[in-house]
From TrEMBL:
Name of the protein this chain belongs to: RNA methyltransferase
List of catalytic residues: 375 (nucleophile), 375
GO BP: methylation
Key word tRNA-binding present: no
Entry GO MF terms: methyltransferase activity
Family statement: Belongs to the class I-like SAM-binding methyltransferase superfamily. RNA M5U methyltransferase family.
Native species: Reyranella humidisoli
Membrane-spanning segments: none
Binding site for S-adenosyl-L-methionine: 257, 284, 302, 349
Signal peptide (residue range): none
Length: 417
């Protein structure tokens, strides 16, 4: 049975939040001050998740969504919100998380916003359903696949690859089977890793299909298999990322910042805020996108083997002993305070869970400058509180909206001691 709700705010997951008779409700695709009809579904946290049935009284900030799939596709949650008001909400997510942890925050730097058509990394689901191949993203809250013609946030070349993958995979998948494709746009072209969801022998016929796929969509490299064991089937050009004066060949399916603009802004933050630090450590370094090319000695720490191998190959090409990389699980074995004290500056850019154990060690260190990149305001605020208790000040913070129209937000921050 549906109920009528007044939406109070948009919560951290991008849903409208309402209170009715002391109970909390979460409704997708709503905006503050709207009255909506909603269908209560399941319990979620301290409230109930609902389906939106109808917007009865729309907000004056509601705008037409630019994508046909909006409302079904799980990729975007907030295309219906006027851009400036939406941008302010993203800043508030960070400010609220810091305030909840009692962190003293500076006035934020002007936020960096990314535009439609800028996403250079996409995880595409490929599924054979009867005679059809579906190629796109999961539906919101479901394992169903939305067959996406054009993704408005993705780079045009990624859309070309989705269309070509849909055609090519028809010759590979049988009814009821699926795969996914990590599509990265590098600085020298598309790098596609196809991961079948069950064991598939890489036959000659599949190889020929993948070679034809690469030709048809001008893909630089197509690989097959898991990230750890991926086999490049065709390399028409070497995928490369250009990081200042340094060039690196990312492994198939490598983590890339979601937009090139965000990568450049974050690199510029590291350069400007760390200055000429003689010895820098980059923790959770991935392929070194934030630090490679920096002056001085650089030590990178990362637990993904293919990324470490890629950085090591680049370090060897550079020669000398300026760049070193270590395979290390920083959740289980964070750098100790003593190890950290060997550096003048630290860059850290952990996954969504943040870096609790590493920040406990860092808080007790003598390191003067820390640049922290984060994609989760909650874990960031928790870690900064630990650093603040250890004597660090949060000096600068720049919000970066590289996950356009989702509830996620990136940021880069400077802490000093
Ligand atoms: C947000 S990405 C940042 C990568 C890099 N800084 C960049 O800008 O491309 C987080 C990185 O942390 C790595 N990572 C995740 N868990 C880790 C762990 N326990 N120890 C070390 N690295 C980890 C991931 O493999 C990934 O490369």
């Amino acid at each position: 049975m549906s109920i009528t709700l007044d939406i109070l705010e948009v919560g951290a997951r991008g849903d409208g939040v309402a209170d009715l008779e002391g109970k909390r409700f979460f409704v997708p695709y709503c905006l503050p001050a709207e009255t909506v009809e909603a269908e209560p579904l399941d319990k979620r946290g301290d409230g109930t998740a609902c389906d939106l049935v109808e917007v009865l009284a729309p907000s004056r900030h509601r705008v037409p969504a630019p994508c046909l799939h909006f409302g079904t596709c799980g990729g975007c949650a907030l295309q219906h919100w006027r851009r400036d008001v939406y941008a302010g909400w993203k800043n508030d997510l960070i400010a609220k998380a810091l305030a909840q942890r009692g962190v003293k925050a500076p006035t934020f730097e002007a936020p960096v916003t990314c535009e439609p058509g800028e996403r250079r990394r996409a995880d595409i689901v490929l599924r054979c359903q009867g005679k059809r191949i579906l190629a796109g993203y999961h539906e919101r809250g479901s394992q169903n696949v939305v067959d996406v013609g054009t993704c408005v946030v993705a780079r045009p070349k990624i859309n070309t690859a989705i269309a070509a993958l849909r055609l090519a995979i028809k010759a590979i998948l049988r009814d009821g089977t699926s795969a996914d494709a990590v599509v990265n746009e590098t600085d020298t072209g598309l790098d596609v890793l196809i991961r079948p969801h069950r064991k598939f022998e890489l036959t000659l016929a599949i190889r020929e299909t993948l070679i034809a796929l690469a030709e048809s969509a001008d893909i630089a490299r197509v690989s097959w298999g898991d990230r750890a064991t991926a086999e490049p089937v065709i390399v028409r050009r070497t995928p490369q990322l250009i990081l200042g004066d340094v060039t690196i060949e990312p492994p198939p399916g490598a983590f890339l910042q979601a937009t090139k603009r965000a990568e450049l802004v974050m690199r510029a933050g590291v350069t400007a805020w760390l200055g000429e630090a003689a010895r820098t450590a980059d923790l959770f370094a991935g392929i070194g996108a934030l630090s490679l090319g920096k002056p001085g000695k650089l030590s990178l720490f990362e637990y993904d083997r293919p990324s470490v191998a890629a950085v090591d190959a680049t370090a060897r090409k550079l020669g000398g002993n300026r760049v070193a990389v270590q395979l290390r699980d920083l959740f289980r074995r964070p750098l100790s305070t003593k190890e950290l004290d060997a550096f003048d500056a630290i860059v850290l850019d952990p996954p969504r869970a943040g870096a609790a154990a590493q920040c406990a060690e860092l808080a007790a260190s003598k390191v003067k400058r820390v640049v922290y990149g984060s994609c989760d305001p909650g874990s960031f605020a928790r870690d900064v509180r630990t650093l603040q208790d250890g004597g660090y000040r949060l000096e600068k913070l720049m919000p970066i909206d590289q996950f356009l129209w989702s509830a996620h937000v990136e940021l880069i921050a400077l802490l000093t001691k």
